[in-house]
Write a structure and sequence with these properties.
Elements (H helix, E strand, L loop, with lengths): L2 H18 L4 H8 L3 H8 L7 H11 L3 H4 L28 E4 L7 E7 L15 E8 L1 E5 L4 E5 L3 E5 L5 E3 L6 E7 L3
Antiparallel strand pairs: 1-2, 2-8, 3-6, 3-8, 4-5, 4-7
């Protein structure tokens, strides 16, 4: 790996760690005593940090220096929700329900959706970001303003969230993984 590649890799890892902690460059500069402009150049891979800089940054992010070099995985970068940790709704058969899988980790919200047999009375919804739907079991129908799309087990759909839509399981037993990206 060349020095330029190493600097770029370090910068990418540093930026990812800073963002995952919702920190600004000003905050990192304050914690490390380093210049904000210098930190910005490190993140862009324009400057190769010294060992002293890497140590200050690892301390600010509470990670090992090897994590900043991408040789170890920063625990804050991986989000796991075990099945036994998710709340289970009590009205499974009565109507549609969601099981949240994430807490907007990395700007993505993920759910297991068990839609009702009929479209909801609240009509179509829209939101920012992008939505993906992966059918886990059964059939899922997504209704847009001018068309309906019927998906079966294993089918995938992606669309901008601003398109008004509603979802149902016409056979009454479908489930889908839904992920929505949140615009910042």
């Amino acid at each position: 790996m060349s020095n330029n590649d190493a600097a770029r890799s370090f910068g990418l890892h540093m930026a990812a760690m800073r963002r995952s902690r919702k920190m600004t460059l000003d905050q990192v500069a304050g914690m490390t005593g380093l210049n904000k402009g210098y930190l910005s150049r490190v993140e862009r891979g324009e400057k190769t940090p010294s060992i002293a800089t890497a140590l200050k940054l690892s301390q600010a992010f509470a990670v090992s220096v090897s994590a900043l070099f991408g040789e170890a995985v920063d625990e804050a970068m991986i989000h796991i929700v075990r099945s036994h940790e998710r709340p289970t709704p009590e009205n499974r058969q009565a109507e549609a329900y969601f099981e949240p899988l994430s807490q907007a980790a990395g700007g993505i919200e993920a759910f297991l959706l068990f839609p009702g047999r009929d479209f909801g009375s609240d009509g179509r919804v829209d939101h920012g970001g992008t939505e993906i739907i992966f059918v886990v079991s059964g059939q899922i129908e997504i209704q847009f303003s001018d068309r309906s799309v019927l998906l079966g087990t294993g089918d995938f759909l992606q669309f901008p969230g601003h398109l008004a839509h509603q979802v149902r399981a016409p056979d009454g037993g479908g489930s889908a993984l839904i992920a929505i990206t949140r615009e910042k």
